[in-house]
Amino acid sequence: MSAFSQKRTLARTAAIIKLFLIFVYDTILLKLVTEEIIMTIKTLLFGTVLLFAGAAISTYFTTNPIKISFQTTYAQESERSVTGLSPVLALPERDAYYPGTEDLGPDEMRVTACGTGMPNARPKQAAACFLVELGNGDKFIFDIGTGSMERLSGLAIPFDYLDKVFIGHLHSDHFGDLDALWVGGVISNRQRPLRIWGPSGTEAKYGTAYAVEHMKEMLLWDAASRLGNVNTQGQQLEVTEFDYRGINEVIYDENGVVVRSFPAIHALDGPVSFTLEWNGLKFAYSSDTYPNKWWMEYATGADIAIHESFLPPILLVKKQKWPVRDALNVGTQVHTSPSMFGKVMSLTQPRLAVAYHFFNDFDTAPFVESQIRTTYGGPLALAVDYMVFNITKDDIRVRMAVINEDVWPLPSIPEKLSADPNKRVGFSQFLIDGREVFTDVIKKIYDETNEEFGTDINPPD
Ligand SMILES: [Zn+2]
Ligand SMILES: [Zn+2]
Predict the structure, then answer these.
(1) pTM for the full model?
(2) Would you put residue 9 in left (φ > 0), alpha (ψ -120 to 50) or beta?
């Protein structure tokens, strides 16, 4: 077929289709299909759409009843406040950590500074203590310096879970509140033994076991006085003393958590530093140390590296009123000065470097930081008490905890049974003869208390 005849055939076919469409339009749509039929079709279609939409909406509200209350955003609430109505929803994002109000993610580590100061006490900063909480439910205390128990109590954690303490060395600013955790824990419902890990010394008398044994000796009267008066299950102490010369030695390995120790160089033989590893996250804690080769090797690449950064000698003289010679010696030979700290962090490259062990004030922090910045340019936090670090593989969030100062102890985890009165040591006849017994007043207290709790306990004769 020629090209011309092909074109002619196409033109004819197009003309026939055109005529057919005109016929359909004129005859069926305009003449045969009435207005009523069109309206009926439209109504049917509209009704069907409404039916489906209604079914979809009712299914949504049946299966997602709670979601409805979350549909109002804080922004919308704010708009309402502009119109005269106050917002009633909690802020979706709070910049502070309120203990006991946040879940810890299964892969998350939370570190709370419970003591960041010095051996000389001050209200603002307790002595060294860091709490590590893991998403698997485990909690670990690293150092428990004087004053730090108050901070730990502010975190509203049942004392049964504050049962593992790792002591870096036996300076009072690193274990001075061990007695407060031990005895205070008993009164605060701890029913589990308190477990302590700490280093040996060059002689037995410089080791952790000796120190804890003598703490118990010091508190013999305290322990005896409580027998039979309160449940003393939490008085049990378990001490693990390990060799301070152990190099990256595993001293704890439970539930996928591994704690290692390596030597620190500080004041006398004995001090150690620690790492804790769990779930691919690494926490490194120097306790006190002069920069040393073991920290360089075993703390390298930590997700969070907490290292002492002592007051620079100039501040030890000006603020602490020390002689220059002692300030230089203690500030740079016994401890790590801020510019030395910076050098340590430049060489070990943690995801976050945390400096502690100095009085962190408006007039000291800028100087300390400027000293650190002469040798280190990486991520840095200058710790104060209640600074909180939430660490995951993707993020490290630094906030401050807001504490309820009226905090009370939480209940024990195992059921707390009443004390056994038969265990009481009791008084001498000398004191028994000195008692003024207000029988009526005491009877009333017993009656009121029994009524309140549905018990039937009689006062002693
Ligand atoms: Zn020390
Ligand atoms: Zn110290």
Answers:
(1) 0.82
(2) alpha
